[in-house]
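So, is this right?
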Amino acid sequence: TLLVLETQHALLVIAIHGFHTTMQTNHKTTLMRWVTILVISLCSKYFIFVIWCIIGLAHGGNNLFASGNSREYGDNSCAMGFCCTTRCYNAPHNVELGWTTPQASFDVLTMTGNTNVALDSLSVKPRTGTVSIKIGADTYYVQYKTFDNYDQYMNSGWRDNVQIKRWNGGGYELTLHFATLSTDGESWVDPSNQVRVTRSSIDGTAKKANIIVGPVSLPSPSPSPSPSPSPSPSPTPPPAPSPS
């Protein structure tokens, strides 16, 4: 069966192999399981936003709104943050879709000390490129994106830094951008004042962000200094010949 959906920006052709008869609030899992999507799109930057809106993926919001209220749009590191710039999804949406398994997971209840993590670029390693932190009912995701693959088209202010997002995994729920760590040594502390994430350094060659995750009860960690190259030894001049 073919279902053709024509929107203002794209023509979508969907091949339906099966459809669950009971529609639930959290229906995207059912749709992703039973529906194979074949797309003829006039513009991919519209498609990646529009198709998941149709299926039921929530928007990528930004918690840094002037009033303090969460904003439904504004996470420009994510295709669901706003239409229409070509870019991939943020870390929590990747986890929600089953595309990413965090390379490290923390729970405030079992956290005893600071842990160093070499966080992979989500743009390069979308299967593992995030760290999750569970704090009570909330789950935060640490993200690092680079100028690679489709993220090369993303606004430069949303690349090459460490970002904190929140998504608690409940039905149709926005992902929320909470912080951007733009400099080495900069830290973010969660709203309940329990966990600290510190940006230690960024290795642009290896596409890794070195971060430190630990409880607030411990002293704030100092970032590891970047190694300085050893100076090359000056050559010893040959001795001047003695006069005859």
